[in-house]
Amino acid sequence: MDYISLSRISLKHLTVLHVLLTTHSVTSAAEQLCVTPSCVSKILSQLRNVLNDELFYRDGTQLIPTSYALSIGPAIHGILSSMNGVIHQGTFDPKLYSGTFSLSMRESTFEVFAETFSDITAQTPNAHLHIYAKEQHGFEALLRGQVDFILLPHDISQPPTMNKELIWHTIMRDEMICLMNAEHPATHTRFTIEDYLSFQHVGIHDKELAIPYFEQTLIQSHKPREIALAVADFGAAAVMCHRTPLLFTCSKLWADTALQAKGLVSRTLPFDYGQVAYSLVYNKQSLNDPALTWLKNQLMTTKARASKLPASIV
After folding, report:
1. Percent above pLDDT 90 for the chain
2. Which of 1, 66, 73, 293 sits between 20 and 30 A of 97, alpha carbons compared?
3. What angle do CA 149, 151, 153 make, to 5 degrees?
4. What's phi and psi for 140, nearest 5 deg?
5. How far apart (Å, rounded) are the C-alpha atoms in residues 255 and 251?
6. Angle of helix 11-23 relative to helix 26-33, nearest 10 degrees?
7. What per-residue confidence (pLDDT) applies to 261?
8. How far apart, in whole angstroms, are the C-alpha atoms of residue 244 and residue 45?
9. How high does pLDDT run on average in the chain?
10. How far is residue 204's CA from residue 227's CA, in Å, rounded to a whole number?
11. What is d(CA 19, CA 13) in angstroms, rounded to the nearest whole number?
């Protein structure tokens, strides 16, 4: 082990690098760390010399990390998480906590967890809860510590990620249904697999997840769906269902709670779609922080609340 080189890098250096990877701004990093921008710039200069890499280059007002800076992000996050656990051992008091929680999810997922978020903010009056779009902060951002958790509806059969640092914890099981507007011809049929495949569909794209089980089953046993329109979120898909004869295959839990789905008709899917759920994804090293352990436990309580959701649209 190179103790001489290690002695040249302090926890302060790693903290600044981690925050810069999150904020992409010297000014924002300085505000978050309660230091001056010149202090951050000085530390960044020292890191560049020690690590022999530029780490960031400027593009307008933003700092763009180099490939090397991105590659060491998860390791830096792991070191800081471990040290944070050493520093903050003991009982966590949510009423006294003044830090920041950060989550990433699809916009539609927010509606399913809104009650839980309300409880969390009530219990931590001095904390800040930041919620980002999953398209903005995905699994790589989770590994680098840019977000604490990802909340995600997904097909359980999908291999979500092969990274062993990420843990997938199912919060609640779900079902899949097909939504359509009240004037759709499929509302007056038995809704067979032939009916389902004879109409065009709205799809949801997610570049980080594999092709869902039900899509693979349709392709192998029947034929692929005709996706006439692909959007990033359930809400946008439901809006298009209101205005077009497109079908939308989605989460039943979401359809039961979402305002965008009100007025749409739901039908049971006429084929095997496997198992689906809402899961909490996190970096196992993050749980060295007692505040994040508390937050994880709060999010897991959503499972008990699932039964309180209103009945499905008929």
Report:
1. 44
2. 73
3. 155
4. -65, -40
5. 6
6. 130
7. 93
8. 56
9. 85
10. 9
11. 10
Residues 56/20, Cβ–Cβ less than 8 Å = yes
Amino acid, single-letter form, for residue 53: D
What's the rounded Cα separation, in Å, for the pair 82 and 79?
5
Nearest-angstrom CA–CA distance, 300 and 294: 10
d(CA 102, CA 90): 22
Residues 312, 310: Cα–Cα separation, whole Å: 7
Residues 6+ apart with CB under 8 A from 34: none
Cα angle vertex 101, ends 23, 291, to 5°? 130
What is the maximum alpha-carbon separation in the chain? 76
- In three-state secondary structure terms, 155 is strand
pTM, rounded to two decimals: 0.72
**Two structure tokens written together for 69:** 């800076």
CA dist 32 and 202 (Å) reads 41
Tokens representing 213 are 């089980």
Predicted confidence (pLDDT) per residue in 165-198, tens digit: 788 888 989 999 999 999 999 998 899 999 999 9
* Structural tokens at position 132: 């980002």
Tokens of 98: 């003044």
Distances, alpha carbon 250 to alpha carbons 57, 118, 168, 254, 277, in Å: 42, 25, 21, 8, 11
Neighbours of 240 (CB within 10 A): 17
Query: What tokens does 108 get?
Result: 């539609």
SS3 4: helix
